[in-house]
Write a structure and sequence with these properties.
Shape: elongated
Structural class: alpha+beta
Number of strands: 8
CATH superfamily of the largest domain: Tyrosine recombinase, N-terminal domain
Strand content: 15-25%
Order of helices and strands: EEEHHHHHHHHEEEEE
CATH class of the largest domain: Mainly Alpha
Largest sheet: 3 strands, antiparallel
Strand order of the largest sheet: 1-2-3
Distance between the termini: 72 Å
Number of helices: 8
Length: about 290
């Protein structure tokens, strides 16, 4: 039987959430359908509870019948889907079973990009656990973004920085855009959500005296470490690009280095040698005589 969870506001029941298992996927994982039922105005609690039980039974039969029709259509190579206004998809199931596997882990992204989206999705799924994809409003998302910058606590015990909140905004936009593109929702709610302000920080550069002292002390470092820091400071290359250099990339006659690859690491994929971050990142850089 479907589970029935009352939702209260100011001590009063305003709606009921129905949730039921309609089947299992190829991995044996349960497939759930959810919906929200609102009792008629003025109905007493015991009357609303009984009416909710009856409504849940009727909805459960409908949800299972719709799922069976969908599976039957797929079995003969046809598509079958409900219009967005009749769908009640669990948000977390959509993110973990559809968006992440099909959009993020599709093979078109680098391991660091996949790890980024997976990490960004964790607080989103934690906050919206139990929510219906089609029922998440712009106000719900705005509250979430505000929560991240105020009451939320990261592993360091602090709220997210403005930059990280902007990243969360971008990931949510991609999630809902994907749902809209595949007609699971009628409209992307992110269009009505304000983009968090970008934090502007002043550049904390070395003074000429600090730079002179740095290069003086650098001479006493081991050669490999000294070479890495010399390249990073005098060329502006990224760390991964510096780690990806090979002897064939160095032209001692022209005093240049060629950036053609980058090294990255994630716990899931280990060390990976790949192309640089963007197409424009493939470039030739002049190096100083001292380098």
């Amino acid at each position: 039987m479907a589970s029935i969870t009352p939702k209260r506001k100011s001590g009063r029941i305003v709606s009921y959430k129905f949730k039921t298992c309609v089947g299992r996927n190829t991995q044996g994982k349960q497939i759930f359908r959810c919906t929200t039922w609102v009792p008629p105005e003025g109905m007493k609690v015991f009357q609303a509870d009984r009416a909710a039980e009856k409504a849940a039974l009727e909805w459960e039969d409908t949800a299972r019948a719709e799922y069976e029709r969908e599976m039957a259509a797929l079995a003969i190579g046809k598509s079958y889907s409900l219009p967005p206004e009749k769908r009640h998809d669990d948000f977390n199931s959509f993110v973990s079973e559809i968006w992440l596997p099909l959009q993020v882990r599709s093979g078109s992204h680098k391991p660091t990009t996949v790890a980024f989206f997976e990490n960004m999705s964790k607080p989103i799924m934690e906050y919206f656990k139990g929510s219906i994809l089609q029922e998440i409003s712009p106000f719900d998302i705005q509250r979430y973004l505000t929560y991240l910058g105020t009451d939320y606590r990261s592993k360091l015990g602090k709220p997210l920085s403005p930059k990280s909140v902007r990243h969360q905004h971008g990931v949510l936009n991609q999630i809902f855009s994907y749902a809209e593109r595949h007609e699971l929702i009628t409209k992307n709610p992110m269009r009505l959500v304000d983009t968090p302000h970008k934090e502007r920080k002043s550049v904390d550069a070395l003074t000429p005296e600090q730079a002179a002292q740095f290069f003086l002390l650098l001479e006493s470092c081991p050669l490999n470490f000294r070479c890495i820091l010399q390249l990073l400071i005098t060329t502006g290359v990224r760390r991964g690009e510096c780690m990806g250099l090979q002897w064939g990339d160095i032209d001692t006659q022209a005093s240049t280095i060629r950036i053609e690859r980058s090294v990255s690491y994630t716990p899931q994929s280990g060390v990976v040698v790949n192309t640089p971050k963007t197409a424009n990142s493939v470039r030739t850089i002049p190096i100083l005589p001292s380098t």
